[in-house]
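Please predict the structure of the following assembly.
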Amino acid sequence: DTGVSQNPRHKITKRGQNVTFRCDPISEHNRLYWYRQTLGQGPEFLTYFQNEAQLEKSRLLSDRFSAERPKGSFSTLEIQRTEQGDSAMYLCASSANWDSGNTIYFGEGSWLTVV
Amino acid sequence: RKEVEQDPGPFNVPEGATVAFNCTYSNSASQSFFWYRQDCRKEPKLLMSVYSSGNEDGRFTAQLNRASQYISLLIRDSKLSDSATYLCVGTNQGAQKLVFGQGTRLTINP
């Protein structure tokens, strides 16, 4: 499967614990995005990378959130000291910036439940 | 005001009916436009791009009205399999990222 891959797909954690999600984009896609989606809402932009450079971060991304893409391939999203409000689906997406249609392909998401 | 706004519904229509969704956008999400489809607990998937001249893909027609800053999606001869959430999407200036609306939930009834 050459699509966007995310893991773990599901994570249940206790409040205060740290969690990390990994995203493997489509091969040769140099843009990688993280979005968050809660029930009944559309995905909300968190951050994006072009190669290894993090070019934009949403104000939604508090100091407890950090994302990295060290070699310009896979990315990790870490949430420290989780809170119940962090419960959501975390979506990773990738695109190639040469694609004139700017089609962005999403992974299946990582579901986080903070109890 | 949200950058992309749409009626969350739900819309319940009988199979075979025609259904239309609209959404409005702000200047900060006004470069390119798309409709994405999202099934329950699944990721969003691109349904179609939206062009200024309007475009059609089978039973689906998308329209863009830049003067009024709204986008529409028309589904003709609806099928049970069309039941999903439809997300109206714009991109920011420079088309660096997608900006999503809340989504409109559609259920097609037999």
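The first strand of chain B starts at residue 4 and ends at 6. Chain B touches chain A at residues 4, 8, 32, 41-46, 49, 87, 91, 95-103 (CB under 8 Å).
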